Amino acid sequence: MISRRLAAILVIVIVGTAVVGVLSFFPPQRFVDSNQQYLGDSDTGYTNGPWWGWHMTKIATYGEKVFTYTIERTDTGRSTHFYEKTVGGEWVEGISMPSTRPESILVDSDGYVHIIGFRAFDPSNEYHGRLFHIKMNNTGTVSGPYAMEYLSPPQDLYSYDPLQFVTIYYGAGIGPDGTIVVVSTNSESEPWGLVARIYNSSSKTWSIEAITTDLPSRFCYQYVQVTSKAIHVVAIEDQYDPDLENEWFQYRFGMVKYFWKELPSGTWQEETLIDLNPTHTPVEILNLGLKVDELRVDSNGTVNVIYHHAVKENANSFYVYHLTKPELGTKWTNKTWVTTSTWTRLWENKNGDQYYVCAEWGHQPSVIPVGSDTRYYIARFPSEYTDDLWLYIPEARGGSTLSDYLEVVAYESYPESGTEAITVEVDMSNFAWSWGYEP
Question: Per DSSP, which regions of 187-229 are E strands?
């Protein structure tokens, strides 16, 4: 069902030779038919939260089922509202729970939904607390009973042990055999490090190990991917810098690191993918806006990492870097291009065809077939949603297998706008575009 806010009809009457003039000044764009729905209502403040954490998994699929959530913010705190639907259907609300920050939704190969989240010890300091894991009791749903367990100690047993200390910065992934990996930042001060909590689906037990305790600064917003061969992690530097104290943001995103471990018993490897620190000042780094868009291992066993930054300070065009390598290999291939897309995800259909799913600065969400320069717009959002969208798509891992349907959930990156979550569903089995005009 399309919201009434999308129900406006534009009627263009073109008479006689005026057709030529219209086409010359307004070149047609390629649009793809899609089903769009709103979740929540701006009056409830549902999206004051899901915008945070571009690395989180905020939408997941299992067969014909799709799962996502919104966050309601009130004077007494935040609550997460989980939703489910079948492809082509309406969203139905399931369980709700208190929330400190957005959770990650994972689905195992049996269709059970897993939720990884973080709860603060004290609402006045939401950066310190406990990681938790929820598993729904029934397959293919986010409704009904569930089991919950904590992955880190309670406050009275909390210590600064590098293996036990957790912060709000974490990421999660699930493998085809049900292995769950939760990676968290393990310190708010030096020495910096990352810790992995690993769930063995056979023994139903968790183990804990250090990925590294020797990082040059704090690394956060962890993307995590688990396959039958390896665990992959990408994190970005999120370091307080006193040189930025008088700027609009005091944290420097200057470096992206990649970590990986071959399963079952390999050792953790570390590699720097980009480092702006040697050649740019902290203020320049801040205004270049380096961000990680994607970590994905595709059906060919290729690791894909995508990140972007502005071509120059505060520009509205961006360098997008798409790095690839064999899963157990070491040599990266780098494809870089300039675009107006602020976020670039990678999606793969049942046939193995790959598409970039893009949030284009000031325009509508779009897809670009990999290897093509043709952009297809997949949604017509009201203009207030198009300044800086954050797009989330399901990842083909665990039980989220490849599909002919592209499922997207989009949020405005600035939550004070009070925008709702907008979901977009595109049937890519018969991918085609129709002539139309950009709204």
Answer: 192-200, 205-215, 219-226
Q: Are strands 318-326 and 302-310 parallel, antiparallel or unpaired?
A: antiparallel
Question: Which pair of structure tokens corresponds to residue 60?
Answer: 């997941």
Mean pLDDT by 10 residues, the chain (439 residues): 30 31 42 79 56 89 94 81 94 92 94 95 84 97 97 81 86 95 88 95 94 94 96 97 94 97 96 97 96 96 97 93 96 95 92 91 85 86 70 85 91 60 86 48
- Residues 6+ positions from 221 with CB-CB distance below 8 Å: 53, 54, 55, 169, 171, 235, 236, 238, 292
Q: Which two tokens stand for residue 100?
A: 């400190």
- Distance (Å, whole) CA 140 – CA 284: 47
Contact 213, 162 (CB under 8 A): yes
| Stretch (H or E) spanning 295 | strand 291-297
β strands within 329-420, DSSP E? 333-339, 341-348, 354-360, 366-369, 376-377, 389-392, 405-412
* Residues 6+ positions from 119 with CB-CB distance below 8 Å: 98, 100, 129, 130, 132
Distance, in Å, from the CA atom of 419 to the CA atom of 380, rounded to the nearest integer, reads 15
Using an 8 Å Cβ cutoff, are 196 and 231 in contact? yes
**Cα gap 82→90, rounded to integer Å:** 13
Query: CA–CA separation, 291 vs 320, rounded Å?
Result: 10
Angle (CA) 345 350 353, round 5°: 55
Distance CA 218, CA 231 (A): 21
The Cα 301–Cα 327 span in angstroms is 6
Domain 4-436: give its CATH architecture. 7 Propeller (2.130)
Domain boundaries, the chain: 4-436
